[in-house]
Amino acid sequence: MSDIHIRTEGRAGRITLARPKALNALTYEMCLATERALDLWREDPAIDLVLIDAEGERAFCAGGDIAEMYRTGKAGDFEYGRRFWRDEYRLNAKLAEYPKPIVSFLHGFTMGGGVGLGGHCSHRIVCDSTRISMPECGIGFVPDVGGSFLLARAPGRLGEYLGLTAARMGPGDAIHAGFADHYITEIEWRTLKTLLCETGDASVVAGAALPVPDSPLAAQQTQIDALFAGETARDIVNSLRHDGTPFAAQALEAMARCAPLSLAVTVGMIHRLRGPSLTIRKALELEYRVSHRIMEHGDFLEGIRAAIIDKDKSPRWHYADGDVPAVAVSKMLMPLGDDKLDFREKSMKIGFIGLGNMGAPMAANLVRAGHEVKGFDVAGLTAEGVTPAASARAAAEGADVVVTMLPNGTILRAVADDVIPVMRPGAILLDCSTVDVDSARAVAHQADEASLGALDAPVSGGVGGAAAGTLTFMVGGSKAAFEAARPLFDVMGQKAVHCGPSGNGQAAKICNNMILGVTMIATCEAFALADKLGLSRQAMFDVVSTSSGSSWSMNTYCPAPGIGPKTPADNDYKPGFAADLMLKDLRLSQQAADSVDADTPMGEAAMELYRRFVEQEDGKGRDFSAMLPRFESRGRG
């Protein structure tokens, strides 16, 4: 992406904003790209810290790119802005809570969204050119992106002063107010960045730091505390009007340019947040209550019009006389109910290839969770809510994640050859098929060569689990890719286990299903024996399900109809997990056993029994638990 440069250098993950002509204003795509990078680097052992900086001399980041918010909002589409804010605020929380050091270099104008990006990092560096501010009230908004968190923690009443006047802080003020940590002259930044990348040691920042410059705000702290201590914005205005000092006059002049409703809400936010229970998430959740409503019920669109679109500098504010009723503030800050900011992962663009009995409900669940899914199936199958694609390549182009659910390793390799060349670097190829370990590892190597993440993630739970979103995923691949895909696992399943490097997901599935095949045969044999011994099936179930012979095949997937929980046995053995698929998995287990010289006599015997059942008897197209009627009709001969 030309607007942001993301890469690794030495021991560091590096993010550089690259819109200097636009003062590095933050776009929606830049937010999403930053979050993707942080997710990938979170568990990457090769990355010890993250470094965030920006191109150009004038600004680190002068705010968010709000032109699209204005366009969509004026058209009555408030959801675009709400989605932007939800995703941006989640990024702000991740920056504040990140488990590795993040070093931000805050030169020039650092305003609004720039504070959200660089102001919550563990190591915040400023220089002589730094000018930090929260100017949102001037466009009919409120300090957001976690700005209310910083304002509520600022010494004394600095939070109210900075939030209401948009006063710009130089390096000394920024450190005094808690918006920055270290002062280092900009001429030394190149050397420091090189050292950080080479060593991965964030402690070198403190070693390079210089004495903090004087802070004019610190010198004015007593006066600020007295003048900005009012309970409401109106109280603060009255205090300033009665003071008569040049400082008070300047503050009044700055506030006069702001939306009265925004000023009142900002004071209410800071007062609610200030205290020992404050967290970044609490502040962002409160901010989002305002963001969610501000275009429809506040002055945000009018503020953008006057400042940026028409540039007439003559906004027509609500409550222009400055008399904002308390109920108006309360309405902006009241809880949102189901629309509450919950920090869930962003909507992803997903390509889904293979929309059969398992793939279709999995893809439909992703759509219902709010993801954008394009799907392709060679048989022309589709799924509810999924946008049909003309080919596998068309489904994969532009996707954040490509999910495959395919019959075998040969087809997986062919699909990988087709889609990997059109996938964007950093995207993830998530294969949920059950295939041989060698194919899984070959595709993972191919994806790695193309700078893609790759996960082999076969599933357990059958068609019912796919429809209900209760599958279990056994996942092989890098920890970073696993964490990036975790939100999708949470939608499609109830559990995802990271089993190690590529191929280990398939290894876990193969071993699990070998156990399942063996235990189902044993369970069916035991029921058939109980029948011939005159033991009722119910008594058999009641004893075994609570005794040492209990197993998943008995307790959850009982092969005897009318006994225990409802299973395919109660539906004439129509397949939940087909015997054909069990045969496939058992063959994979024996192929794997041969490749590593493992002795698996029970697995081999189970494979042979299912081979005869499917290929020579009536097992094809029936559930794998239909072994029970098979054994019922057979003797020992």
TrEMBL record:
Coiled-coil parts of chain: none
* Reaction catalysis annotation: a (3S)-3-hydroxyacyl-CoA + NAD(+) = a 3-oxoacyl-CoA + NADH + H(+); 3-hydroxy-2-methylpropanoate + NAD(+) = 2-methyl-3-oxopropanoate + NADH + H(+)
- Give the GO molecular function terms: (3S)-3-hydroxyacyl-CoA dehydrogenase (NAD+) activity; 3-hydroxyisobutyrate dehydrogenase activity; NAD binding; NADP binding
Domain 3-hydroxyisobutyrate dehydrogenase-like NAD-binding: residue ranges: 503-628
Record-stated family: Belongs to the HIBADH-related family.
Q: What UniProt keywords apply to this chain's record, in alphabetical order? A: Branched-chain amino acid catabolism, NAD, Oxidoreductase
Enzyme Commission number(s) from the entry: 1.1.1.31
Its gene? Answer: mmsB
GO terms classed as biological process: L-valine catabolic process
This chain belongs to which protein, by name?
3-hydroxyisobutyrate dehydrogenase
| Residue ranges constituting the 6-phosphogluconate dehydrogenase NADP-binding domain according to the UniProt record | 349-500
Domain annotation Enoyl-CoA hydratase/isomerase: ranges? 13-325
Quote the pathway field: Amino-acid degradation; L-valine degradation
